[in-house]
Q: What sequence folds into this?
């Protein structure tokens, strides 16, 4: 213990929380290697690093989900042992997770009650949830079951659940990854208020413009070690990205003269009822994506994005075959395997559980979307050796960081699992790709890699439909953008002929004439008003 106490602060103001000499090993793999971190009251401190740098491991130690192999955590200068999240919460530490820790079959209120004291349950809890909704714009229906909610709505539960505990330190792991710009602006207002109240915030995000706006100090991790600290407001997003990955991040560039001939993905007057009480019906949707084209679909979470993806992937079937056509062939009533046989590939929004089975190895997960199209052995079984080769190719092509030769998918960081899932589909060389939230939770270098891979795939003739809540992403990769609102789709507009403000107005429910009329004079901050 003496060796670790030697890392405790000497001189200067005592930090609210500190971590000194933190080492965390998983077998032979060292996720954190001698990390020192100090967090002061009234500051927003960024923790930056590429996927697999050790950020999430360190956060889990501070929240009591993991115990360090070596090192100490301090609270106001005193060494403390955070044996579990209850101990962390008792000291005033709250956490908003990147991956939702919610029980699908419970309601919003029941999920929040799980971490509340008995006195704050039932009607009292419902009133507190409503109060936070009024105060911070984080509106939730306490009676809705979690399974019926969009990703953005689930994120609100995590934030409200944390704030109801009156934390002194709030740890936020990619809090805006599934939020629209308007929702993110509302969150920033909340965070700035918490900071002004004297609370500390530890902020993890790959959206570096957010970091520059909110944070006045940043600690940068690479390979499990601290490689530097800086004032984010004195840096550019590009220089921060270079500090994180150790090299300049390449710019994304579309291939010139992409083929544009045949329509490959056609949706023709698709109407589907809501699949559940709180889901969104699809209302007379029509769209066309040609060979070599990328169509972006923008929208606020909960407006039919998940329902559209399910209808395109075959997880929900249309009432007639002609409602969805793949390379001219009617596919509306076909399931996902049959659509894959027609040359389509799909990347869902939720990587854990939907795109990948967390308890299965990477090679086994490589088979999940290939079993209907992969070659069979003489016994009719999928060739596991081929799956291992495929997993290796994905890992190498998309720089997937992992521990061990073929680990379980659930052991990867969120960003690395996203790279694996996207790589699995792109390396199939599909003729049609539907991808939902392609760079959710990945670092700047990985986001650039994924976006370039999507552009390159389109350059080889693939028709790509990208559903994303990241408008910067859509304006970077899409040829045209349509907006999904309340289950209805606006007419696609070439990216070069629209603006973030116009798209934001459509996301908020404005008509197409109203949204596009003021494009030339739209103020730069118009989008921030959309929530």
A:
């Amino acid at each position: 213990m003496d060796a670790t106490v030697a890392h405790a602060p000497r001189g200067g103001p005592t930090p609210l929380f500190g971590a000194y000499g933190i080492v965390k090993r998983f077998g032979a793999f060292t996720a954190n290697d001698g990390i020192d971190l100090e967090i002061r009251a009234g500051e927003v401190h960024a923790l930056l690093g590429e996927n697999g740098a050790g950020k999430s491991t360190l956060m889990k130690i501070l929240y009591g989900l993991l115990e360090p192999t070596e090192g100490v955590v301090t609270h106001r200068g005193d060494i403390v042992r955070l044996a579990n999240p209850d101990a962390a919460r008792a000291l005033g530490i709250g956490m908003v997770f990147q991956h939702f820790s919610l029980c699908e079959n419970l309601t919003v209120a029941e999920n929040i009650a799980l971490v509340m004291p008995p006195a704050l349950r039932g009607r009292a809890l419902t009133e507190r949830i409503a109060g936070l909704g009024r105060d911070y714009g984080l509106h939730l229906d306490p009676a809705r079951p979690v399974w019926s909610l969009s990703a953005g709505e689930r994120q609100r539960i995590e934030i409200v659940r944390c704030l109801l505990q009156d934390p002194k330190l709030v740890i936020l792991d990619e809090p805006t990854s599934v939020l629209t710009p308007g929702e993110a602006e509302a969150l920033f207002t909340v965070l700035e208020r918490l900071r002004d109240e004297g609370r500390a915030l530890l902020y993890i995000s790959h959206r570096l413009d957010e970091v520059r706006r909110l944070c006045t100090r940043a600690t940068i991790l690479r390979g499990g070690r601290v490689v530097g600290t800086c004032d984010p407001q004195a840096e550019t997003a590009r220089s921060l990205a270079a500090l994180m990955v150790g090299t300049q991040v390449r710019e994304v560039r579309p291939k010139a003269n992409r083929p544009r001939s045949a329509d490959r993905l056609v949706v023709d007057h698709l109407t589907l009822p809501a699949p559940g009480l709180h889901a969104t019906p699809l209302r007379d949707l029509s769209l066309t994506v040609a060979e070599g084209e990328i169509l972006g679909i923008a929208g606020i979470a909960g407006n039919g994005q998940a329902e559209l993806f399910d209808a395109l992937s075959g997880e929900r079937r249309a009432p007639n075959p002609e409602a969805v056509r793949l390379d001219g062939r009617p596919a509306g009533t076909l399931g996902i395997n049959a659509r894959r046989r027609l040359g389509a590939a799909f990347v869902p929004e939720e990587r854990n559980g939907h795109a990948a089975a967390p308890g299965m190895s990477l090679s086994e997960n490589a088979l999940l979307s290939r079993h209907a199209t992969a070659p069979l052995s003489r016994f009719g079984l999928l060739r596991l050796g081929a799956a291992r080769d495929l997993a290796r190719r994905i890992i190498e092509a998309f720089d997937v960081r992992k521990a061990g030769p073929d680990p379980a998918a659930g052991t990867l960081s969120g960003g690395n699992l996203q790279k694996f899932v996207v790589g699995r589909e792109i390396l199939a060389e599909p003729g049609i790709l539907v991808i939902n939230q392609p760079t959710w939770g990945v670092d700047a270098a990985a986001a650039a890699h994924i976006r370039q891979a999507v552009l390159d795939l389109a350059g080889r003739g693939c028709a790509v439909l990208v559903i994303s809540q990241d408008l910067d992403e859509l304006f970077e990769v899409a040829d045209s953008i349509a907006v999904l609102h309340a289950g209805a789709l606006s007419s696609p507009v070439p990216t070069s002929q629209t603006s973030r403000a116009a798209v934001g107005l459509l996301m908020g429910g404005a008509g197409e004439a109203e949204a596009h009329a003021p494009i030339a004079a739209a103020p730069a901050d118009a989008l921030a008003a959309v929530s």
